[in-house]
Every structure is written in structure tokens, then in C-alpha cells.
Amino acid sequence: MSKTMAGMSSLSVKNLKRKPGRTIALVLLTAFLALAVFGGSVVVLSLRNGLQSLEARLGADIILVPSEAQSKVSFQNMFLQGTTGAFYMDASVTEKALEVPGVEKAAPQVFLASLKADCCSIKIQVIGIDPEKDFTVQPWIARSLTGELGDLEVAVGCKVEADIGEIIRIYEQRCKVVARLEPTGTGLDTAVYCNMDTMNKLLAAAEAKGISHKITSNDDSVVSAVYIKVKDGYDIDTVNTALTGKLRKVTAVRTRSMITGVSDSLAGVSRTITTMVIVIWVLAFVILLLAYILIVRERSREFAVLRLLGASRKMLGRMALLESAACGLLGGILGVVAAAVGVFAFASLIENSLGLPYLMPAFFSVILLAAGTVLLSVAVSAAASAISAWRLSRVNPGTALREGN
Amino acid sequence: MKKQIIPGCVMLVLSLVISIGSFTFLSPCVHEDGSVGACWWAGRALLGLGCLLGVLAVLTLVSGRARFGTYLSSIAVCVLGILTPGTLINLCRMSSMHCRAVMQPAMIILFSISAIAAAIGAWVSRRDK
After folding, report:
1. By the CB < 8 Å criterion, does B2 face chain A?
2. What is the distance between the terminal CA atoms of chain B, rounded to a whole angstrom?
3. Domain locations in chain B?
4. For B23-72, how does the pLDDT look when each residue is reduced to its tens digit (9 = 90+)?
5. In this predicted structure, what is the pLDDT of residue A225?
6. Predicted complex ipTM
7. Shared domain check, A164 and A80
8. Are A254 and A236 in contact (CB under 8 A)?
């Protein structure tokens, strides 16, 4: 039995080699299917991961920003695309916010857009945090840095290509990189983080270069945003309204509304990609089906001869299925490799183009997805050839050979 | 003969894409103020390597006995092309920048395919040497 199987496998391989044009066409068609499924799935998974990461990184219920901030820069773009922005309000906002009933924590942050840095041609967002009060960025930094950020020490987002121990210059201040943060798939990956003492030095250096952060002539105690955590049991909307009422010239942004906006865009993109993948699959399956049906006419004499030589119907059917499965396997592997090269090598380009949080799935998930796609390609290829395999196995040798003459 | 020159044709097409791409769609970062960064020099080096690969590809098509050696030299040029952006010449330090998001991965892929083509060419023309 195993000898017969080995013989059939070898005959199938010979058949595939004998008609290279037909084999290449079938392999390429299956590769296209695999490419669409694997590439599309990785992009959709990355978008979902990005949204989860954005939710985890924001961590706050409400963000307080100066009223003019909304007109200066899209707050959403700062988080999603790393757009730089700097706006300031009085630092007393933090203490005042804590007086509002329902506010559990208030963490101030100071933003500073660097000048064109010595490393590259774009501005970098520098974010100053207060490690004692911060509950949004600090846990993320703690995963990469065991101690605390010291003076003129910075932690860089994963997209800033600077090694630990390297010195980067911001407004002529030499800052030492002490940590590289884990990817979040958001605009936060392009920022540089420091403590408030370092930020004050950078603000002074910026002042010396003519970039003022002062909101009054004798006041240099400023913050850009205050992240608010609402106590359990309190309604976030009520606290939001109370904060807006108490604090003048300050806008309270609910993070949920920001995430909902992103989530809606993401659902739209995911739906489009999924629909495209389904359409490609249906079309390619129909083309494969037609291709295999046409092959029946072409190969009926070949199978008639095999029948005359003693091959059973079962053997012939199995041989036809084996050939299509082999094409499916080759095409599946080829498609997965091509899609992997595209989606992984150009991940930054895809992220920039989509303008949405984009975080690649874990290695194990990618391997599972690749294996699943290859199996699916084999199954679809075999399913498309099932009808032709059945018809070929039932070829009447006499009729087929007479028709040939 | 046909088998021996097909890899050369593939290399020629890819070298054209590399050379033209290095100052068009696969160019280094475009600076708003007209200044140049490290990635600009990487782009120039890639243009040179693309042209060199093109010349070697033409040589594989016209030369008979030297074909094997020309394919081997092409592999060396491709390795240099893979290492140039980011390893031998620095690029911008933000991975969302054009030089890192587009130029580097595209050039690595193009030079890698060229290297594979050159290796196949060297294999099929190994008896000519």
C-alpha cells in the first residue's frame, strides 16, 4: 500500500514538472489567495492590537488641556501619529483639579516640541512627567528602566533610533538615553520622556533660543496637560462637567470619546480589508474551480491510459487531489512569505498611511496565522479540484481515447 | 544559454529600479529647509551600487567565459547594497521617517532578490568558467 502511495506521489510530482506552465499558474493563483489572507489578517490584527495598546497607554479617564490647545493641534493626532505640539497652562491646575470631588489622581505633563534635532529632519515631541504623580507613562517606563529618570536622562519611544547610553542633543542640552520603551503602536512611540527637572532645563534652553513657554512674564511654572483618574463609583461625565466649571480657560477631554473615534475608524478599515479578502477568495476559488474543470478535458486521455495500465479509479482520484494539494502547499508557502516580507518590512509605511494605532501581533500568533493560511490554501486547492478529480477518476478509457483520435 | 542569461536580465531590471528609485520613489528623506542628513549620503551610495549592479548585469549578458565570475561579483555588490542603508551609512533616527520606512526595506528586498538571482546565475553557469 505504502509502495503504491510512494509511486503515486512520484507520478504526481512528475506530472507537475512535465507541465511547468500549468503548475506555475496554479501555484501563483493559490499564492495570491494566501497573500491576501495572511497580509489582510496581519494588518487587521495589528490594528486591533494598536487600539488595545492605545487604551492601555492612555490610562486616564479625562485629560485637561488649555482651551487654545484644540485649535493649535489635533490632540488625537498627537497620540496617533506623534504630531508635535506645545501648549501651556498654569501648573496650579493640577492642585485645583484634585479639589474637585471624584478626582482620585491628577498627573501633570509638560510638552515641548524640539527644534529640528541633530538626528533627523523632523521635530521630536519631548514629554516631561512627574514620576511621583504619574500613573500613565511611568508604569510603561518602569518596564524598561529599573530606577527613576535622573537629571538630563531621557527614555525614548521605540521609534526613536537611539541606543541606551547614547547622548542626544535637544536645544543644545546633552541628554543621556537610559531606556528604550516597548512599542505601543501609537504616536507615543516617537516621543522622548524626561522628568520635570530635565524638562525645566530644556524649557530654559528653549527660552534662550527664543521659544517662549511663559504664559505670564514672571511665571515659568507651567504644565501642558493634566491626566485625571476618576474615583470608583463616580460618574466620569459629572466629574468632567465639574472640572470644566471649576477651571477657567481649560478644556476637559474624555479619553473614551477619543478612543471611540479611533475605534470607529479602525472598524471601517477592518471591514474594508475583510471584505476585500473575502472577494479575492471567492474570485480566486471560482478561477481555480474553472481551471481544474478545464484540466479535465486536457487530461482525460492521460488518465484513460493510466486506467488501461491498471490504475484504479480511487488511485486516479487520489493522484489528482495530491497534485492540487501540492500546488496549494507551494502556493500557500509562497504567498505567506511574500505577504510577510511586505507587511513586516513596510510596517512603518502601513502605519503612517493608515494614521491609526498599529501594533504587530506577537511572533507566536504570526506563526499560527501563517500555518493556518498554508493549511487553508491546501484545503481550498484540494476542494476546487475535487470535482475534476472525481470526473477524471471516472473517465471511460475507450471513449476518451476514441475522442482523441 | 537561455538559463544562464535569465538571472542577468532579472538583475538588470532590478538594478534599474534601484538606480531610478534611489532618487525618486525610494529616495532618502526630503528636508524642508534644503539641508541634507546622513540618509541622503546613503541614497547616493545606493545609486552608485545600483549603477554598478546594472553594469555587471549587462556583462553577464554579453560575456561568455567571464559570466560565472561576474555573477559572483554581483553577489558581493548586493551584500554591500543590503548593508549600506542603516549599517554602513546611518539613516535618520526616527523609524517613521521615509528613509527608514520605505528606502531601507525596499532596498534590502531589491538587493536580496538580486543576490538570489546572481547566485542562481552563478550556479547555472558554473561549468562555463
Report:
1. no
2. 14
3. 2-29+38-128
4. 999 999 877 667 777 889 999 999 999 999 999 999 998 887 788 999 99
5. 87
6. 0.84
7. yes
8. yes
